[in-house]
UniProtKB/TrEMBL annotation, chain B:
Keywords: Membrane, Transmembrane, Transmembrane helix. The lineage of its organism: Bacteria, Pseudomonadati, Planctomycetota, Candidatus Brocadiia, Candidatus Brocadiales. It comes from Candidatus Scalindua brodae. The keyword 4Fe-4S does not apply. This is ABC-2 family transporter protein. It comes from the Bacteria. The keyword Membrane applies.
Length: 307, 430
């Protein structure tokens, strides 16, 4: 009996992911080598994470912590020095499984002389999507990312934000089950960020799995179900946002229409019950909220924002 | 397959929108057209020769340049731009990327050949027509060439130096050339016998020696004897009525110098027979085919380079390969030259200083000679693909040449492509 178990464990293929796991890494390690094979950079050290199907998972970490490296390992663009990873139940060197994955790289890098239509068409063809369907999806995606107005312009005339949008569009051309996004909001203005976040939430609503990495914490906090924080290639902590941020001895109250007298009464009541009031202030909101509010108002008056 | 074609189309589009292809083709066409205005001394045939040679040279030059610049830069540029990241993240086998790129380059070169080839052809025809009206009879030649099937050197005094055999006159030696399979559509045409001999005479100053030529028809046993003079750097020409073959397809030609003390230097291809004429258009197409095979070979090498070299290095690498591939002869000679220096030092042997330089020469021998020799065998030999001389001499290109060139390129590709696949498959696209 024991022998049988060992055999099952040893043969990599026989090992089956439980059905609700989309991505799993096992001691995933990557050391970059210089041209001569010397001087290693340990970009990733024994990473173990598991991402469930249907969740939005955020990989967090400062610049150079190994986020992009992780994603590239998962996509088989680079090869692990040690350890293994499974994506949608297959090892990362399986090419066919990529037809169910959408990837947006860190920098938006496309053929600069193609326009948005041609770009999406090109990637669609790589997925062997039939012509009519390709056209349909191209139209739908360009509307979805708000690039319809610039579909015939070559990408070299695009701004950085527009390139990000086309990046997201090409990642969705194959209607993937798993979407991997590298810094989806970097280089976007607050509106773009908001729209991207909404789009990602929309994907989740469609039942898709999203893995995104970012160094912008606010992005992640809003939308991710679970996060992992890595630094210098090592996993520091992982769990749901709630778990990680739970601070059990402080409670925040948000109250509207509170008169000064009532406030004082509440304060007195809390002190009677041996509680300590740390601070009382008017809710200020974030700069982001303000920005969004102002711009949104202007948008409503001047409809066309495109050019 | 669909993926390969998509990538090929993409590669082609890129080259077109880059305008590099456009610029190269324009420059090529301008160069070709310039050849018409080249001043020439001589008759109409000379003029045509110039135009023909210019056309083929510029097609070769610009085609090679396009093959190198575009195919050496495409993959490295994609890697630099990181476009390759998005492509490899799709369900595309990496070998398909390389296949797609290669087919894309084939499209590109096809377009270049089509444009430059048709312009050249028109120009050559036009020149021939213009020169034809000025009195010269045949402008565009594509004569059928026959090589000897067998060359025998008789006589004891024959000495072989390099690939040249020297025979002495005065009955001390002779060269016997056997031809087989001589045939032509028009039996009444004249056979032209053309010979390029080296000579070494007693009287050096004259620069020519008398030779005896015997033409034997083994079928009817008819023998024709001619006495002629061979000059140092003019080919010997002899015309023979086609009827004198009497329906036979064989001919034996014996050449020997008249006087003892005169030497005739002979190579295997010194004597050729031309009989009959083929269409120029067909010959032209054959020429283009051989040249395009060379381009394909260059593409394969450039792709191999681009799997592990960065853009500028790869372009240098390709230029280097192309340059060396055209001078493999010289590279081999160079290594013999070094050898000669060394042995002569040995013969004279001697002083301490000399001894020392000898050591250096030995050193030089190992450091330079061996690698160069090795390199000359590893690098592709582009002489397989030189067709210029066929057009200058107005010779029909034998089909054997096409197959040889093609076979050589295929063989080379069969070695290079698997290496490219392997390297690219393991390449980290970071
Ligand atoms: N191609 C490469 N060669 C060598 N080192 C690299 C390469 N790519 C990334 N690195 C190194 O690996 C580490 C992690 O990089 P990366 O994964 O890009 O970080 P992040 O995406 O989190 O900002 C960094 O220290 C970086 O310098
Ligand atoms: Mg990164």
């Amino acid at each position: 009996m024991l022998l049988l178990w060992t055999i099952v464990l040893l043969s990599g293929r026989a090992w089956k992911l439980s059905d609700d796991i989309a991505i799993k890494t096992e001691d995933l390690t990557k050391a970059y080598r210089s041209f001569w094979g010397r001087k290693k950079v340990l970009a990733l050290n024994k990473l173990n994470i598991a991402i469930r199907k249907g969740e939005i998972f955020g990989l967090l970490g400062p610049n150079g912590s190994g986020k992009t490296t992780t994603l590239k390992l998962l996509l088989g663009l680079i090869f692990p020095t040690e350890g293994r990873a499974y994506v949608l139940g297959e090892a990362t060197d399986d090419v066919a499984i990529k037809s169910r994955i959408g990837f947006m790289p860190e920098e938006s890098c496309f053929y600069r002389f193609l326009n948005a239509d041609e770009t999406l068409d090109f990637y669609g063809q790589l997925f062997r999507i039939p012509g009519k369907e390709r056209k349909l999806r191209t139209n739908r995606l360009l509307t979805r990312v708000g690039l319809e107005f610039a579909r015939k312009r070559p990408l070299k005339q695009y701004s950085k934000g527009m390139l990000r949008r086309i990046g997201i569009a090409q990642a969705l051309i194959n209607d993937p089950d798993l979407i991997i996004l590298d810094e989806p909001t970097s280089g976007l203005d607050p509106i773009g960020t908001r729209e991207t976040k909404d789009l990602i939430l929309g994907l989740k609503a469609q039942g898709k799995t999203v893995l995104l990495c970012s160094h912008l914490l606010s992005d992640v906090q809003d939308i991710c179900d679970r996060v992992a924080i890595i630094d210098k290639g090592e996993l520091q902590i992982s769990g749901t946002i709630g778990e990680l941020l739970a601070n059990r001895d402080i409670v925040e109250l948000l109250i509207r229409n509170l008169s000064k007298e009532t406030l004082m009464e509440v304060e007195r009541f809390i002190q009677e019950k041996q509680g300590e009031v740390v601070s009382i202030k008017n809710s200020s909101g974030t700069l982001e909220d303000l920005f969004l509010k102002i711009v949104q108002e202007r948008r409503e008056t001047s409809w066309d924002r495109s050019d | 397959m669909q993926q390969i074609l998509v990538i090929a189309k993409q590669t082609f589009k890129e080259a077109v929108r880059n305008k590099i292809l456009f610029i190269l083709i324009t420059l090529g066409v301008v160069t070709i057209c310039c050849s018409v205005f080249m001043p020439v001394v001589g008759d109409g045939r000379e003029k045509i020769k110039i135009v023909e040679s210019m056309c083929f040279r510029s097609i070769t030059f610009f085609g090679t340049l396009a093959a190198i610049l575009l195919s050496a830069s495409s993959i490295p540029t994609d890697i630099d731009n990181k476009v390759i990241c998005t492509i490899t993240a799709k369900p595309v086998q990496r070998t398909n990327i390389i296949f797609g790129k290669i087919i894309g380059f084939v499209y590109i070169i096809g377009v270049l050949l089509l444009i430059m080839g048709s312009v050249s052809y028109t120009l050559i025809r036009y020149t021939a027509l213009k020169q034809g009206t000025q009195g010269s009879s045949r402008g565009l030649l594509a004569r059928e060439q026959f090589d000897p099937v067998n060359l025998q050197i008789t006589g004891d005094s024959a000495k072989k130096i390099g690939n040249v055999s020297w025979i002495e006159g005065g009955g001390k030696g002779a060269s016997v050339w056997k031809f087989k399979g001589l045939s032509s559509k028009d039996k009444n045409d004249d056979l032209a016998i053309e010979a390029n001999f080296l000579i070494e005479g007693k009287k050096r100053s004259t620069g020519r020696i008398p030779v005896k030529i015997k033409i034997i028809n083994p079928y009817s046993a008819r023998i024709l004897t001619e006495s002629m003079e061979v000059s140092r750097n003019k080919p010997l020409l002899l015309r023979l009525n086609g009827k004198s073959l009497d329906g036979s397809e064989e001919l034996t030609i014996v050449v020997s110098p008249e006087n003892s003390g005169d030497f005739l230097g002979i190579r295997a291809d010194s004597l050729r027979i031309f009989w009959g004429e083929k269409g120029f258009g067909c010959n032209y197409l054959k020429g283009l085919t051989i040249i395009s095979t060379q381009f394909l070979l260059m593409v394969v090498i450039a792709v191999l380079g681009s799997t592990f070299l960065s853009l500028p290095v790869n372009i240098l690498f390709c230029l280097f390969v192309f340059f060396c591939g055209n001078i493999t002869d010289f590279m081999r000679d160079l290594s013999t030259v070094i050898n000669v220096i060394e042995t002569s030092e040995h013969e004279h042997g001697i002083s301490g200083v000399m001894q020392k330089s000898n050591v250096y020469l030995m050193y030089l021998n190992h450091i330079i000679k061996k690698p160069i020799l090795l390199l000359s065998y590893i690098l592709p030999d582009f002489r397989y693909f030189s067709v210029g001389k066929y057009f200058i001499d107005g010779i029909n290109i034998p089909c054997k040449r096409i197959f040889m060139g093609f076979g050589y390129a295929v063989l080379y590709a069969l070695v290079c492509l698997p290496i490219s696949f392997l390297v690219f498959k393991r390449k980290e696209i970071a």
